[in-house]
Amino acid sequence: MLTLQGTVVNVLRHAQRTGRDGKTYEAYNQVQIMVEEPLQDGQKRVGVQTLITDTPEAFERLTNRPVSVPVGVYIRNGSPAFFMQKGASPEAYVDRSAS
Fold this sequence. Notes:
The protein is mainly beta. It has one helix at about 55-60, and strands at about 1-15, 15-20, 25, 30-40, 45-55, 65-75, 80-85, 90. Strands 1, 4, 5, 6, 7 and 8 form a 6-stranded antiparallel sheet that branches. A hairpin with a 5-residue loop joins strand 2 and strand 3.
């Protein structure tokens, strides 16, 4: 597992719904985490990673605070994408590199 560090910016709760084709889609939750992505030339790009979570309350308590979460990575459309294991919870952290 890798660790993703960033700031929780939003928690999205999606209700169960039925699509146009009549198929039922289960309810799910997502968390958006703002992260700094290092570039090859040494610069940093700010991006938002959106992850599915089954512990939205844990993230809501840490909104606008830096966290670290264990993640796995896979390739989707030629780019890395992240996922959290079921039950994974964030840990608040203090960025000591800024001092």
